[in-house]
Design goal:
Radius of gyration: 15 Å
Distance between the termini: 39 Å
Shape: globular
Structural class: alpha+beta
Number of helices: 3
Number of strands: 7
Order of helices and strands: EHHEEEEEEH
Strand content: 25-35%
């Protein structure tokens, strides 16, 4: 359905602390520069607190807002409003859970919801985000495999 949440679940070969840190503190090391508003961001920032900003900084210093952190519970849960390329009033919601699965293994569950607030644009925007997730996640998985450096 047009407004159903997007859900992705996968396992990574590292502990939850490392998986969380790669997604948050090291986001700038793996986020593709062409997946940004400027098309060539110099830095991607996810501030480590509820109310923290998610944004890119372009080479000329211009900052482009992407979202706002709504849940910060390291290493188990991260939530944020997501409006990259849209107005904050059109934000969707992303929740990511990092669940330890034993020594050196973590299950990551991503839920991206809130499409209904976009009205007629919900379907196309949801489809665009599904494609973006499919393109983005391999970069994160590569960063995990390489140790996040």
């Amino acid at each position: 359905m047009t407004n159903d949440p997007l859900r992705m679940t996968f396992d990574v070969a590292c502990d939850a602390e490392h998986a969380f840190a790669i997604w948050t503190a090291r986001i700038s090391t793996w986020w593709p520069r062409d997946h940004t508003i400027s098309g060539n961001a110099q830095q991607i920032v996810l501030q480590d607190r509820v109310g923290g900003r998610i944004y890119e900084r372009a080479a000329d210093g211009t900052e482009h807002e992407w979202g706002e952190v709504t849940a910060w519970q390291p290493p188990a849960r991260l939530g944020y409003l997501w409006y990259l390329g849209r107005e904050p009033a059109d934000a969707t919601e992303v929740e990511i859970r990092f669940t330890a699965q034993g020594a050196g293994k973590t299950r990551i569950e991503i839920t991206h919801r809130g499409w209904e607030r976009l009205g007629q644009a919900a379907g196309p925007w949801r489809d665009r985000n599904l494609s973006a997730w499919q393109t983005l996640l391999p970069h994160y998985l590569t960063a995990i495999a390489e140790g996040g450096t």
